[in-house]
């Protein structure tokens, strides 16, 4: 005899209350309303970019604005002299006359306006334009580097040279120069040979030691104003700006630009991230680098 379980199927009564409950649940769900692009454009009431008409006019008429105090002061002088001539006042200034005192005050204000205009014309912001590096194009990569490291170094150079004002790139890691690419200073002999990086001499300088000690990026926005420029003789003589990016505790990347303050804040942040990525790659393959003594035979 087989044992089994019998289930009693009880039909669910289909009443009007169930219909009302089901319909109320269906209405409680949120509805998705799609709006066409034309409707959304017409209904947009967000902030719009504002324009300052006065600032735009001043920037477009810089010479006129700078010379306007001269015109105002000159016209004031002529008006004072004309008023003095047509009025029944003695041409000689009299301290007891209120008109004479007013004229002297007006003359002083007019002369002040003229001098202010002359100062405005003499002081102008220096236009910052890119310069052509005074040097020779040079490309040197350590031949013993793994292909992965070589390709990443070339990627860094290509990215920096195309996106930023970078025109020279030098990478020194683990006491050796593994990359020198871009423009380099020409040797004193003038035979078209590039001046190569002396890693040992560079590592003894204050710039290299300071960057490794602080482990922070150093931005020399106007290289000509820094005495440490003499520690970078391998860069073109007219290099305008330099970024010193530490690569962990073992190296540094030197990025030379052709424009004063040419590296923006975004460029500096991006170079920092690129430096961290490059440091991770170099640290991974640092055991495969050629010793410094052997590198010297290749011109480094």
UniProtKB/TrEMBL annotation:
GO terms for cellular component: chloroplast. Coiled coil: none annotated. One of its GO terms (biological process) is cytochrome b6f complex assembly. This is Protein COFACTOR ASSEMBLY OF COMPLEX C SUBUNIT B CCB4, chloroplastic.
């Amino acid at each position: 005899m087989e044992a089994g379980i019998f289930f009693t199927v009880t039909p669910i009564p289909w009443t009007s209350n169930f219909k009302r409950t089901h319909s109320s649940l269906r209405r409680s769900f949120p509805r998705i309303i799609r709006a066409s692009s034309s409707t959304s454009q017409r209904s947009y009431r967000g902030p719009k970019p504002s324009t300052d008409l006065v600032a735009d006019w001043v920037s477009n008429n810089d010479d006129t604005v700078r010379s306007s105090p001269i015109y105002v002061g000159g016209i004031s002088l002529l008006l004072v002299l004309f008023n003095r001539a047509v009025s029944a006042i003695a041409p000689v200034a009299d301290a007891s006359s209120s008109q004479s005192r007013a004229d002297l005050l007006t003359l002083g204000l007019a002369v002040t306006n003229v001098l202010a205009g002359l100062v405005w014309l003499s002081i102008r912001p220096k236009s910052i334009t890119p310069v052509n590096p005074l040097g020779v194009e040079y490309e040197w990569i350590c031949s013993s580097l793994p292909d992965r490291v070589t390709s990443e170094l070339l990627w860094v150079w290509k990215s920096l040279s195309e996106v930023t004002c970078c025109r020279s790139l030098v990478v020194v890691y683990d006491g050796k120069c593994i990359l020198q690419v871009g423009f380099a200073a020409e040797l004193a002999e003038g035979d078209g040979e590039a001046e190569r990086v002396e890693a040992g001499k560079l590592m003894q300088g204050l710039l290299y030691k300071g960057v490794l000690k602080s482990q922070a990026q150093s931005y020399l926005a106007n290289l000509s104003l820094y005495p440490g420029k003499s520690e970078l003789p391998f860069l073109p003589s007219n290099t305008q700006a330099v970024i010193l990016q530490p690569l962990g505790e073992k190296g540094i990347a030197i990025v030379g630009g052709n424009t004063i303050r040419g590296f923006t804040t975004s460029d500096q942040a991006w170079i920092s991230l690129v430096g961290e990525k490059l440091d991770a790659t170099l640290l991974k393959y640092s055991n495969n680098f050629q010793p410094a003594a052997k590198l010297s035979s290749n011109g480094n």
